[in-house]
Structure of Methyltransferase:
Amino acid sequence: MLIRLFTLGRPVPASALASALPTLGVEGAVALGLVRVGGGRAGVAAGRSTPPEREVAATCDLRPYGDDAHDWWVASDLSELVVGGPLRRDHVLGIGGASTTLASWTVRRPVERALDLGTGCGVQALHLTGHARAIVATDISERALAYAAFNVALAASEHSGAVPPFELLAGDLLDPVAGQRFSLVVSNPPFVITPRDEALPLYEYRDGGRAGDALVRSLVRQVGTVLEPGGIAQFLGNWEVPAGRTWRDVWGDWLEEQARDGIALDAWVVQRESQDPAEYAELWARDGGALPGSEAHSQMYAAWLRDFASRDVERVGFGVVTLQRPATDRPTWRSLDEAHGPVSAPMGPAIDAGLRARTWLAEHSDDDVLDVAWSCAPDVTEERHGRPGAEDPSVILVRQGGGLGRVVRAGTLLAAYLGVADGELTARAALDAIAEVLALEPEQVRAETLPQLRDLVADGLLV
Ligand SMILES: C[S@@+](CC[C@H](N)C(=O)[O-])C[C@H]1O[C@@H](n2cnc3c(N)ncnc32)[C@H](O)[C@@H]1O
Protein backbone atom coordinates (compact mmCIF):
# COMPACT_ATOMS: atom_id res chain seq x y z
CA MET A 1 0.00 0.00 0.00
CA LEU A 2 2.82 2.41 0.86
CA ILE A 3 4.55 1.54 -2.41
CA ARG A 4 1.30 2.13 -4.31
CA LEU A 5 0.87 5.51 -2.61
CA PHE A 6 4.40 6.89 -2.51
CA THR A 7 6.28 5.14 -5.29
CA LEU A 8 3.58 4.64 -7.90
CA GLY A 9 1.85 7.90 -6.93
CA ARG A 10 -1.63 6.32 -6.83
CA PRO A 11 -4.20 7.53 -4.30
CA VAL A 12 -5.27 5.09 -1.57
CA PRO A 13 -8.20 5.00 0.87
CA ALA A 14 -7.44 7.03 4.00
CA SER A 15 -8.38 4.02 6.14
CA ALA A 16 -5.68 1.92 4.43
CA LEU A 17 -3.05 4.56 5.13
CA ALA A 18 -4.24 4.82 8.74
CA SER A 19 -3.63 1.09 9.25
CA ALA A 20 -0.27 1.17 7.43
CA LEU A 21 0.95 4.06 9.61
CA PRO A 22 -0.68 3.32 12.98
CA THR A 23 1.62 5.63 14.96
CA LEU A 24 1.72 8.59 12.60
CA GLY A 25 -1.86 8.32 11.36
CA VAL A 26 -3.35 10.17 8.38
CA GLU A 27 -3.35 13.51 10.21
CA GLY A 28 0.32 13.12 11.11
CA ALA A 29 1.25 12.33 7.50
CA VAL A 30 -0.70 15.40 6.36
CA ALA A 31 1.01 17.55 8.99
CA LEU A 32 4.43 16.34 7.75
CA GLY A 33 3.43 17.31 4.22
CA LEU A 34 3.76 13.73 2.95
CA VAL A 35 0.14 13.36 1.77
CA ARG A 36 -2.92 15.45 1.11
CA VAL A 37 -6.50 14.43 1.49
CA GLY A 38 -8.33 14.06 -1.81
CA GLY A 39 -7.09 11.98 -4.70
CA GLY A 40 -6.86 14.87 -7.16
CA ARG A 41 -6.27 14.10 -10.80
CA ALA A 42 -4.94 10.62 -10.24
CA GLY A 43 -7.62 9.80 -7.68
CA VAL A 44 -10.60 9.80 -9.99
CA ALA A 45 -11.32 6.11 -10.37
CA ALA A 46 -12.90 5.54 -13.73
CA GLY A 47 -16.31 3.86 -13.82
CA ARG A 48 -16.99 3.94 -10.08
CA SER A 49 -20.70 3.64 -9.35
CA THR A 50 -20.58 4.57 -5.64
CA PRO A 51 -18.93 7.67 -4.14
CA PRO A 52 -15.33 6.78 -3.35
CA GLU A 53 -14.12 6.55 0.21
CA ARG A 54 -12.04 9.51 1.36
CA GLU A 55 -8.70 9.12 -0.41
CA VAL A 56 -5.24 10.41 0.23
CA ALA A 57 -2.58 11.19 -2.38
CA ALA A 58 1.15 11.47 -1.92
CA THR A 59 2.72 14.91 -2.20
CA CYS A 60 6.18 13.39 -2.62
CA ASP A 61 7.86 10.24 -3.79
CA LEU A 62 9.05 8.08 -0.91
CA ARG A 63 10.77 4.81 -1.66
CA PRO A 64 13.01 2.21 -0.11
CA TYR A 65 16.64 2.35 -1.13
CA GLY A 66 19.86 0.99 0.31
CA ASP A 67 23.38 -0.32 -0.01
CA ASP A 68 25.02 -3.49 1.31
CA ALA A 69 24.85 -2.26 4.89
CA HIS A 70 21.84 0.09 5.01
CA ASP A 71 18.13 0.24 4.28
CA TRP A 72 16.82 3.78 3.80
CA TRP A 73 13.63 5.51 2.80
CA VAL A 74 14.26 8.42 0.45
CA ALA A 75 11.80 11.23 -0.25
CA SER A 76 11.93 13.45 -3.31
CA ASP A 77 9.45 15.23 -5.56
CA LEU A 78 6.92 13.14 -7.46
CA SER A 79 8.29 12.04 -10.81
CA GLU A 80 7.19 13.36 -14.16
CA LEU A 81 5.23 10.14 -14.76
CA VAL A 82 3.10 10.73 -11.68
CA VAL A 83 2.76 14.48 -12.17
CA GLY A 84 1.71 13.77 -15.75
CA GLY A 85 3.16 16.95 -17.23
CA PRO A 86 6.13 19.31 -17.18
CA LEU A 87 7.99 19.44 -13.89
CA ARG A 88 8.28 22.51 -11.69
CA ARG A 89 11.53 24.40 -12.13
CA ASP A 90 12.69 23.71 -8.60
CA HIS A 91 11.88 20.00 -8.89
CA VAL A 92 13.92 17.89 -6.48
CA LEU A 93 15.09 14.82 -8.29
CA GLY A 94 14.68 11.34 -6.90
CA ILE A 95 17.23 8.57 -7.22
CA GLY A 96 17.97 8.01 -10.90
CA GLY A 97 20.49 6.34 -13.16
CA ALA A 98 23.05 9.13 -12.70
CA SER A 99 22.72 8.95 -8.90
CA THR A 100 23.37 5.21 -8.83
CA THR A 101 26.22 5.50 -11.33
CA LEU A 102 28.04 7.99 -9.12
CA ALA A 103 27.28 5.94 -6.01
CA SER A 104 28.70 2.85 -7.72
CA TRP A 105 31.92 4.59 -8.84
CA THR A 106 32.59 6.30 -5.51
CA VAL A 107 35.72 5.19 -3.69
CA ARG A 108 34.50 4.07 -0.27
CA ARG A 109 37.67 4.45 1.81
CA PRO A 110 37.03 5.48 5.40
CA VAL A 111 37.47 9.28 5.41
CA GLU A 112 37.40 12.07 7.96
CA ARG A 113 35.33 14.72 6.11
CA ALA A 114 33.30 14.29 2.92
CA LEU A 115 31.38 16.78 0.79
CA ASP A 116 28.33 16.05 -1.36
CA LEU A 117 27.99 18.99 -3.73
CA GLY A 118 24.48 19.42 -5.20
CA THR A 119 22.98 16.94 -2.78
CA GLY A 120 19.39 17.07 -4.07
CA CYS A 121 17.41 14.57 -2.01
CA GLY A 122 20.66 13.59 -0.26
CA VAL A 123 21.25 10.19 -1.84
CA GLN A 124 25.04 10.52 -2.14
CA ALA A 125 25.22 11.91 1.38
CA LEU A 126 23.35 8.85 2.67
CA HIS A 127 25.96 6.60 1.04
CA LEU A 128 28.69 8.70 2.66
CA THR A 129 27.27 7.97 6.11
CA GLY A 130 28.79 4.49 5.77
CA HIS A 131 32.42 5.66 5.55
CA ALA A 132 32.79 9.36 6.43
CA ARG A 133 33.17 10.65 9.99
CA ALA A 134 31.60 14.01 9.10
CA ILE A 135 29.55 15.06 6.08
CA VAL A 136 28.77 18.43 4.50
CA ALA A 137 26.06 18.51 1.83
CA THR A 138 25.34 21.60 -0.26
CA ASP A 139 22.75 22.68 -2.77
CA ILE A 140 21.59 25.88 -4.39
CA SER A 141 17.98 24.80 -3.85
CA GLU A 142 16.37 25.32 -0.43
CA ARG A 143 13.73 22.70 -1.34
CA ALA A 144 16.47 20.17 -2.07
CA LEU A 145 18.14 20.92 1.27
CA ALA A 146 14.81 20.44 3.04
CA TYR A 147 14.38 17.02 1.41
CA ALA A 148 17.97 16.07 2.26
CA ALA A 149 17.42 17.11 5.89
CA PHE A 150 14.24 15.01 6.01
CA ASN A 151 15.95 11.95 4.50
CA VAL A 152 18.91 12.18 6.84
CA ALA A 153 16.55 12.53 9.79
CA LEU A 154 14.71 9.42 8.58
CA ALA A 155 17.99 7.51 8.28
CA ALA A 156 19.02 8.65 11.75
CA SER A 157 15.73 7.56 13.25
CA GLU A 158 15.97 4.12 11.68
CA HIS A 159 19.57 3.52 12.71
CA SER A 160 19.53 5.72 15.79
CA GLY A 161 22.94 7.28 16.23
CA ALA A 162 24.49 5.71 13.10
CA VAL A 163 24.50 8.95 11.10
CA PRO A 164 27.72 10.95 11.54
CA PRO A 165 27.71 14.73 12.11
CA PHE A 166 25.96 16.25 9.14
CA GLU A 167 25.84 19.84 7.90
CA LEU A 168 23.63 21.22 5.13
CA LEU A 169 24.72 24.44 3.41
CA ALA A 170 23.03 26.54 0.73
CA GLY A 171 24.97 28.13 -2.10
CA ASP A 172 26.51 27.97 -5.54
CA LEU A 173 29.07 25.21 -6.26
CA LEU A 174 32.03 25.51 -3.87
CA ASP A 175 31.07 28.92 -2.41
CA PRO A 176 29.50 27.52 0.78
CA VAL A 177 32.64 25.50 1.63
CA ALA A 178 35.34 27.99 0.58
CA GLY A 179 38.36 27.56 2.86
CA GLN A 180 37.29 24.10 4.07
CA ARG A 181 39.11 20.84 3.30
CA PHE A 182 37.73 17.39 2.50
CA SER A 183 39.19 13.94 1.93
CA LEU A 184 36.38 13.10 -0.49
CA VAL A 185 34.15 15.28 -2.65
CA VAL A 186 31.34 13.65 -4.60
CA SER A 187 28.99 15.41 -6.95
CA ASN A 188 26.30 14.56 -9.44
CA PRO A 189 26.20 18.21 -10.49
CA PRO A 190 23.64 19.89 -12.75
CA PHE A 191 25.81 19.08 -15.74
CA VAL A 192 23.22 19.08 -18.52
CA ILE A 193 24.28 21.43 -21.31
CA THR A 194 21.30 23.73 -21.81
CA PRO A 195 20.73 26.59 -24.26
CA ARG A 196 20.66 29.91 -22.43
CA ASP A 197 17.32 30.76 -23.98
CA GLU A 198 14.66 32.56 -21.92
CA ALA A 199 11.92 30.51 -23.56
CA LEU A 200 13.32 27.27 -22.10
CA PRO A 201 12.56 26.20 -18.54
CA LEU A 202 15.58 26.22 -16.25
CA TYR A 203 15.43 23.03 -14.21
CA GLU A 204 17.58 23.48 -11.13
CA TYR A 205 18.19 19.77 -10.80
CA ARG A 206 20.02 19.44 -14.11
CA ASP A 207 21.02 22.93 -15.27
CA GLY A 208 23.56 25.01 -13.39
CA GLY A 209 22.68 28.13 -15.36
CA ARG A 210 25.98 28.34 -17.27
CA ALA A 211 26.55 28.21 -21.03
CA GLY A 212 27.77 24.96 -22.60
CA ASP A 213 29.85 22.78 -20.30
CA ALA A 214 31.15 25.72 -18.23
CA LEU A 215 29.83 24.35 -14.93
CA VAL A 216 31.75 21.06 -15.13
CA ARG A 217 34.82 22.89 -16.38
CA SER A 218 34.73 25.29 -13.44
CA LEU A 219 34.33 22.38 -11.03
CA VAL A 220 37.47 20.81 -12.51
CA ARG A 221 39.32 24.10 -12.13
CA GLN A 222 38.27 24.82 -8.56
CA VAL A 223 37.72 21.53 -6.74
CA GLY A 224 41.41 21.18 -5.82
CA THR A 225 41.03 24.17 -3.47
CA VAL A 226 38.86 22.11 -1.09
CA LEU A 227 40.82 18.84 -1.28
CA GLU A 228 43.24 17.76 1.40
CA PRO A 229 46.55 16.30 0.22
CA GLY A 230 45.61 12.77 -0.87
CA GLY A 231 41.95 13.83 -1.19
CA ILE A 232 39.73 12.66 -4.04
CA ALA A 233 36.94 14.37 -5.98
CA GLN A 234 34.54 12.29 -8.06
CA PHE A 235 31.80 13.66 -10.25
CA LEU A 236 29.78 13.07 -13.38
CA GLY A 237 29.80 15.43 -16.32
CA ASN A 238 29.14 16.23 -19.93
CA TRP A 239 31.74 17.84 -22.17
CA GLU A 240 31.45 19.40 -25.58
CA VAL A 241 33.75 18.28 -28.38
CA PRO A 242 33.98 20.85 -31.17
CA ALA A 243 34.69 19.92 -34.79
CA GLY A 244 38.29 18.96 -35.43
CA ARG A 245 39.05 18.04 -31.81
CA THR A 246 38.82 14.88 -29.71
CA TRP A 247 37.41 14.57 -26.22
CA ARG A 248 40.96 13.96 -25.03
CA ASP A 249 42.05 17.30 -26.54
CA VAL A 250 39.23 19.02 -24.64
CA TRP A 251 40.24 17.38 -21.37
CA GLY A 252 43.89 18.17 -22.06
CA ASP A 253 42.96 21.88 -22.15
CA TRP A 254 40.82 21.63 -19.02
CA LEU A 255 43.53 19.91 -17.04
CA GLU A 256 46.21 22.33 -18.16
CA GLU A 257 43.99 25.22 -17.13
CA GLN A 258 43.36 23.45 -13.81
CA ALA A 259 47.07 22.94 -13.10
CA ARG A 260 47.88 26.54 -14.07
CA ASP A 261 45.15 28.16 -11.99
CA GLY A 262 44.99 25.88 -8.98
CA ILE A 263 46.58 22.93 -7.27
CA ALA A 264 47.71 20.37 -9.86
CA LEU A 265 45.64 17.18 -9.58
CA ASP A 266 45.93 13.64 -10.84
CA ALA A 267 43.10 13.03 -13.29
CA TRP A 268 41.31 9.88 -14.34
CA VAL A 269 38.47 10.53 -16.73
CA VAL A 270 36.43 7.63 -18.10
CA GLN A 271 34.22 8.56 -21.01
CA ARG A 272 31.19 6.27 -20.89
CA GLU A 273 29.13 7.69 -23.73
CA SER A 274 29.37 10.01 -26.70
CA GLN A 275 26.31 11.46 -28.42
CA ASP A 276 25.80 13.75 -31.37
CA PRO A 277 23.91 17.02 -30.77
CA ALA A 278 20.64 15.61 -32.15
CA GLU A 279 20.69 12.61 -29.79
CA TYR A 280 21.51 14.88 -26.88
CA ALA A 281 18.75 17.37 -27.76
CA GLU A 282 16.24 14.53 -28.10
CA LEU A 283 17.13 13.13 -24.67
CA TRP A 284 16.99 16.38 -22.73
CA ALA A 285 14.07 18.04 -24.48
CA ARG A 286 12.06 14.96 -23.42
CA ASP A 287 13.40 14.83 -19.87
CA GLY A 288 11.41 17.73 -18.39
CA GLY A 289 8.08 16.18 -19.38
CA ALA A 290 7.49 17.73 -22.84
CA LEU A 291 6.17 15.05 -25.18
CA PRO A 292 7.85 14.45 -28.55
CA GLY A 293 5.64 15.94 -31.23
CA SER A 294 4.40 18.73 -28.95
CA GLU A 295 5.12 22.38 -29.77
CA ALA A 296 7.16 22.74 -26.55
CA HIS A 297 9.32 19.74 -27.43
CA SER A 298 9.99 20.95 -30.99
CA GLN A 299 11.00 24.40 -29.74
CA MET A 300 13.38 22.97 -27.18
CA TYR A 301 14.87 20.53 -29.66
CA ALA A 302 15.55 23.36 -32.13
CA ALA A 303 17.03 25.57 -29.39
CA TRP A 304 19.46 22.80 -28.40
CA LEU A 305 20.61 22.29 -31.97
CA ARG A 306 21.12 26.06 -32.45
CA ASP A 307 23.07 26.27 -29.20
CA PHE A 308 25.45 23.44 -30.15
CA ALA A 309 25.86 24.83 -33.67
CA SER A 310 26.84 28.24 -32.24
CA ARG A 311 29.91 26.59 -30.66
CA ASP A 312 30.56 24.18 -33.52
CA VAL A 313 29.92 21.19 -31.22
CA GLU A 314 30.05 17.82 -32.95
CA ARG A 315 29.91 15.39 -30.03
CA VAL A 316 28.92 15.50 -26.38
CA GLY A 317 30.79 13.19 -24.04
CA PHE A 318 29.50 11.85 -20.75
CA GLY A 319 31.60 10.20 -18.13
CA VAL A 320 32.92 9.83 -14.64
CA VAL A 321 35.72 12.08 -13.43
CA THR A 322 38.09 11.20 -10.59
CA LEU A 323 40.60 13.84 -9.49
CA GLN A 324 43.17 13.30 -6.77
CA ARG A 325 45.36 15.81 -4.98
CA PRO A 326 48.82 14.24 -4.68
CA ALA A 327 49.82 13.57 -1.08
CA THR A 328 53.50 14.12 -1.88
CA ASP A 329 55.47 16.50 -4.05
CA ARG A 330 55.51 14.56 -7.32
CA PRO A 331 54.42 15.09 -10.92
CA THR A 332 50.72 14.43 -11.49
CA TRP A 333 49.46 11.59 -13.66
CA ARG A 334 46.64 11.55 -16.17
CA SER A 335 44.44 8.74 -17.59
CA LEU A 336 41.82 9.55 -20.21
CA ASP A 337 40.03 6.27 -20.89
CA GLU A 338 36.99 5.15 -22.81
CA ALA A 339 34.73 2.40 -21.50
CA HIS A 340 31.42 2.25 -23.29
CA GLY A 341 30.57 -1.31 -22.24
CA PRO A 342 29.61 -2.90 -18.94
CA VAL A 343 31.92 -2.32 -15.98
CA SER A 344 32.15 -3.77 -12.47
CA ALA A 345 29.28 -3.05 -10.13
CA PRO A 346 30.12 -1.51 -7.77
CA MET A 347 32.96 0.18 -9.61
CA GLY A 348 34.38 2.00 -6.57
CA PRO A 349 36.80 -0.79 -5.56
CA ALA A 350 38.32 -0.85 -9.08
CA ILE A 351 38.69 2.96 -9.04
CA ASP A 352 40.29 2.76 -5.62
CA ALA A 353 42.75 0.09 -6.80
CA GLY A 354 43.37 2.04 -10.03
CA LEU A 355 44.17 5.22 -8.09
CA ARG A 356 46.63 3.36 -5.89
CA ALA A 357 48.25 1.61 -8.86
CA ARG A 358 48.57 4.82 -10.91
CA THR A 359 50.00 6.65 -7.93
CA TRP A 360 52.50 3.86 -7.29
CA LEU A 361 53.53 3.95 -10.96
CA ALA A 362 53.97 7.75 -10.81
CA GLU A 363 56.28 7.33 -7.83
CA HIS A 364 58.37 4.45 -9.24
CA SER A 365 60.86 4.08 -12.04
CA ASP A 366 60.88 1.50 -14.82
CA ASP A 367 63.55 -0.40 -12.88
CA ASP A 368 61.21 -0.57 -9.88
CA VAL A 369 58.44 -1.93 -12.13
CA LEU A 370 60.80 -4.61 -13.46
CA ASP A 371 61.76 -5.63 -9.93
CA VAL A 372 58.22 -6.63 -8.96
CA ALA A 373 56.94 -10.21 -9.31
CA TRP A 374 53.57 -9.33 -10.86
CA SER A 375 50.79 -11.80 -11.32
CA CYS A 376 47.84 -11.87 -13.68
CA ALA A 377 44.69 -10.80 -11.81
CA PRO A 378 42.23 -13.67 -11.27
CA ASP A 379 39.62 -12.06 -13.54
CA VAL A 380 41.96 -12.01 -16.56
CA THR A 381 41.39 -14.53 -19.35
CA GLU A 382 43.00 -15.01 -22.73
CA GLU A 383 41.36 -15.64 -26.10
CA ARG A 384 43.28 -17.02 -29.03
CA HIS A 385 41.93 -16.60 -32.53
CA GLY A 386 43.39 -18.16 -35.63
CA ARG A 387 42.61 -19.86 -38.91
CA PRO A 388 41.35 -23.44 -38.44
CA GLY A 389 44.34 -25.78 -38.30
CA ALA A 390 46.85 -22.94 -37.93
CA GLU A 391 49.69 -23.73 -35.52
CA ASP A 392 49.89 -20.22 -34.06
CA PRO A 393 47.08 -17.83 -33.26
CA SER A 394 46.82 -14.73 -35.40
CA VAL A 395 45.25 -12.68 -32.59
CA ILE A 396 45.60 -13.00 -28.82
CA LEU A 397 43.17 -10.99 -26.74
CA VAL A 398 43.58 -10.49 -23.03
CA ARG A 399 40.25 -9.77 -21.39
CA GLN A 400 39.55 -8.28 -17.95
CA GLY A 401 36.44 -9.70 -16.30
CA GLY A 402 35.93 -6.85 -13.81
CA GLY A 403 37.07 -3.22 -13.56
CA LEU A 404 36.71 -1.32 -16.81
CA GLY A 405 36.39 -4.63 -18.69
CA ARG A 406 39.48 -3.89 -20.76
CA VAL A 407 40.39 -5.96 -23.78
CA VAL A 408 44.04 -5.74 -24.83
CA ARG A 409 45.56 -7.19 -27.95
CA ALA A 410 48.75 -8.94 -26.89
CA GLY A 411 51.77 -9.46 -29.12
CA THR A 412 54.12 -12.42 -28.73
CA LEU A 413 56.19 -10.84 -25.96
CA LEU A 414 53.29 -9.67 -23.81
CA ALA A 415 51.41 -12.97 -24.25
CA ALA A 416 54.55 -14.89 -23.26
CA TYR A 417 55.04 -12.69 -20.20
CA LEU A 418 51.41 -12.96 -19.05
CA GLY A 419 51.71 -16.74 -19.40
CA VAL A 420 54.41 -16.81 -16.72
CA ALA A 421 53.27 -13.86 -14.53
CA ASP A 422 52.28 -15.85 -11.46
CA GLY A 423 53.85 -13.74 -8.71
CA GLU A 424 56.99 -15.90 -8.46
CA LEU A 425 59.41 -14.33 -10.96
CA THR A 426 60.20 -10.63 -11.15
CA ALA A 427 59.22 -9.03 -14.46
CA ARG A 428 62.94 -8.50 -15.16
CA ALA A 429 63.80 -12.19 -14.72
CA ALA A 430 60.76 -13.32 -16.74
CA LEU A 431 61.46 -10.91 -19.64
CA ASP A 432 65.15 -11.85 -19.71
CA ALA A 433 64.20 -15.53 -19.93
CA ILE A 434 61.75 -14.77 -22.76
CA ALA A 435 64.45 -12.78 -24.59
CA GLU A 436 66.80 -15.77 -24.32
CA VAL A 437 64.23 -18.26 -25.66
CA LEU A 438 63.37 -15.96 -28.58
CA ALA A 439 67.01 -15.03 -29.19
CA LEU A 440 66.30 -11.29 -28.72
CA GLU A 441 68.22 -8.54 -26.93
CA PRO A 442 66.97 -8.29 -23.29
CA GLU A 443 67.05 -4.46 -23.48
CA GLN A 444 64.85 -4.53 -26.56
CA VAL A 445 62.35 -6.90 -24.91
CA ARG A 446 62.17 -4.73 -21.76
CA ALA A 447 61.80 -1.49 -23.71
CA GLU A 448 59.00 -2.96 -25.82
CA THR A 449 57.11 -4.54 -22.93
CA LEU A 450 57.46 -1.92 -20.20
CA PRO A 451 54.80 0.55 -21.45
CA GLN A 452 52.35 -2.36 -21.74
CA LEU A 453 53.22 -3.59 -18.26
CA ARG A 454 52.61 -0.14 -16.83
CA ASP A 455 49.28 0.03 -18.64
CA LEU A 456 48.15 -3.37 -17.33
CA VAL A 457 49.30 -2.56 -13.80
CA ALA A 458 47.37 0.76 -13.91
CA ASP A 459 44.12 -0.99 -14.78
CA GLY A 460 44.56 -3.96 -12.46
CA LEU A 461 45.19 -6.73 -15.02
CA LEU A 462 48.57 -7.23 -13.38
CA VAL A 463 48.63 -7.05 -9.60
C1 LIG B 1 21.42 16.08 -10.79
S1 LIG B 1 20.94 16.68 -9.21
C2 LIG B 1 21.81 15.54 -8.17
C3 LIG B 1 21.06 15.13 -6.94
C4 LIG B 1 21.73 14.03 -6.13
N1 LIG B 1 23.01 14.45 -5.60
C5 LIG B 1 21.90 12.75 -6.91
O1 LIG B 1 23.03 12.24 -6.98
O2 LIG B 1 20.92 12.25 -7.44
C6 LIG B 1 21.90 18.16 -9.09
C7 LIG B 1 21.67 18.99 -7.84
O3 LIG B 1 22.51 20.15 -7.91
C8 LIG B 1 21.79 21.28 -7.44
N2 LIG B 1 22.36 22.49 -8.05
C9 LIG B 1 21.97 23.12 -9.18
N3 LIG B 1 22.75 24.18 -9.41
C10 LIG B 1 23.66 24.22 -8.41
C11 LIG B 1 24.73 25.08 -8.10
N4 LIG B 1 25.03 26.10 -8.88
N5 LIG B 1 25.44 24.83 -6.98
C12 LIG B 1 25.15 23.78 -6.17
N6 LIG B 1 24.14 22.92 -6.43
C13 LIG B 1 23.41 23.14 -7.53
C14 LIG B 1 20.36 21.00 -7.85
O4 LIG B 1 19.45 21.74 -7.05
C15 LIG B 1 20.25 19.49 -7.66
O5 LIG B 1 19.79 19.17 -6.38
